[in-house]
Amino acid sequence: MLWSMFWVNFLGTIYGYIWYGKQLEFTAQKLSFAYLPFVPDSPTASLFFIGTLVYLLVDSYKGTQNPKTSWFRGFVEVFGVITSFKYGIWAVSMIWAAAYQGDGVSWQDWMLTISHLGMAAEAILYVSLYTYRKGAILAVASWAFANDYMDYGVGVFPWLPKSLWDELPGVAAFTIALSIISIIVSILLMKARINLQKQQV
């Protein structure tokens, strides 16, 4: 299961960065090279989830029941949780908001819908095996809001269908709300994990 998810996310991450290729090029040439880390939202989310899977695979090969915690591992885990949940829901919402506005729905839209719903779901799949704590959540929350500012304050948000261009303020508000919800989800998952560990002792 872990290896299957690893390869699905690995291939999806490569596809995601390719999908953002033109926007990355535009950002580097027309805006600033320094803005590039804020451009590819979904593939960066899946990249960090791959990092989480690597930790879990190492634990499984070692037969580790209670893996050693570290701030860096916790940061990787909760980055994957918050951003995968957030952008999984965000991408699906944008696809179908555009469809509601009259855009056609292609096979690629269905593929992206299924894959991004999978992103959101997989973020909570291994709740009992995560190790992250409050400090890591705070760090990733800061990144999430900084990314929202860069997206809608500076203008490096993922390119939207034309039908949603006049809805940009609403899209920005929705994205920020998703950041808040995703952070709350990560906190609830942490509390659920801690309670589960206490019951097992």
Automatic annotation (TrEMBL):
<feature type="transmembrane region" description="Helical">
    <location>
        <begin position="110"/>
        <end position="132"/>
    </location>
</feature>
<feature type="transmembrane region" description="Helical">
    <location>
        <begin position="6"/>
        <end position="21"/>
    </location>
</feature>
<feature type="transmembrane region" description="Helical">
    <location>
        <begin position="168"/>
        <end position="190"/>
    </location>
</feature>
<dbReference type="InterPro" id="IPR009845">
    <property type="entry name" value="DUF1405"/>
</dbReference>
<keyword id="KW-1133">Transmembrane helix</keyword>
<protein>
    <recommendedName>
        <fullName>DUF1405 domain-containing protein</fullName>
    </recommendedName>
</protein>
<keyword id="KW-0812">Transmembrane</keyword>
<keyword id="KW-0472">Membrane</keyword>
<dbReference type="Pfam" id="PF07187">
    <property type="entry name" value="DUF1405"/>
</dbReference>
<feature type="transmembrane region" description="Helical">
    <location>
        <begin position="78"/>
        <end position="98"/>
    </location>
</feature>
<feature type="transmembrane region" description="Helical">
    <location>
        <begin position="33"/>
        <end position="58"/>
    </location>
</feature>
